[in-house]
Amino acid sequence: MIDSEGYRANVGIVITNDKQQVLLAKRLKQDSWQLPQGGIDFGESELDALFRELNEEIGLSFEHISILAKTPKWLRYDFPDYHIKHKQKPVCIGQKQVWFLLRLISNENNIKLNMHTQVEFDDWAWVDYWRPIEDVIDFKKPIYEDMLKALAPVLFNNQHKIPNQYLRPLKCSAIILDK
Q1: 69: Cβ–Cβ under 8 A, 6 or more apart, which residues?
Q2: Which residues contact 19 (CB under 8 A, 6 or more apart)?
């Protein structure tokens, strides 16, 4: 659903393991990596969208994960002009996302990328917490930095160090949902 400002509402998903690594997924038939994310349908809650996207993209359901935290507000990014479909109405200029921090509490064999008719990813890997900022497409890097900075205190119990190259000011702090 696109709002009056041209942003599509979206949930982003950060899945962690017991080594505090995150699941990074490779876009189908592309050399492009990102965290799972997806649109919030009309009338759908953030949590409903989270579980639908989690199942469609990664094959996991609520019994496989624990929800740790979320970002408290929408984090926005704009599409580069070449991504904007100017003839489509309403025009979507970017996405606004709320991000959820999850912990995988089941076996990673439950991760299945082919659970939906429209498969989005063809590979995945556990990576260092900060690596998604480097691997994601350039126009998403600032939102990844903002989101990972906001969620890090929850995952690392305030015992984290933000790498020096990430100098953007902290935009928000995570809301703890479960501990």
Answers
A1: 100, 101, 151, 154, 155, 174, 175, 176, 177, 178
A2: 126
Cα R_g (the chain), whole angstroms: 16
Angle at alpha carbon of residue 112, lines to 107 and 113, rounded to 5°: 145
Output DSSP code: residue 58.
I
Phi, psi of 115 (to 5 degrees): -80, -15
Among 96, 11, 16, which Cα is nearest to 51's? 11
- Prediction pTM value: 0.93
pLDDT per residue over 120-129, tens digit each?
A: 999 999 999 9
Sorted by where each starts, the structural domains of the chain and their CATH numbers stand as 7-176 (3.90.79.10)
List, in sequence order, the alpha helices (H) in 43-179.
Answer: 46-53, 131-135, 141-155
In which element (H, E) is residue 1 found?
Answer: none
The distance of Cα 56 from the centroid of its chain, to the nearest Å, equals 14
Among 82, 105, 77, 89, residue whose Cα is nearest residue 9: 77
At 114, list the tokens: 């082919």
| Residue at 110: amino acid letter | N
Please state, as a whole number, how many other Cβ atoms lie within 10 Å of the Cβ of residue 129. 19
Residues paired with 11 in a beta bridge = 38, 98
Write out pLDDT tens, residues 127-150. 999 999 999 999 999 999 999 999
pLDDT of residue 86: 83
